[in-house]
Give the backbone structure.
Amino acid sequence: MTTETLHNNITPATDKLMALFEDILEHDGFGEIRVEVNILKRKQKEVIIHCGKQYRFVVDVPNI
């Protein structure tokens, strides 16, 4: 797996995390973000972002 492929695979999760972070900073109050990562089969991980709602993403694990 190339770095470019890995980057493209995790982009939706990182974009959502950054958007939620910006929303909390702009919000006139407090907020909380929690990130949970679970191991799946076939060299993948499930990323769950908790911020009022749950946002779920499946990302490929890089070969290290």
Notes: Helices lie at 3-26. Residues 3-60 form one domain. The mean pLDDT is 87. DSSP finds one helix and three strands in the chain.
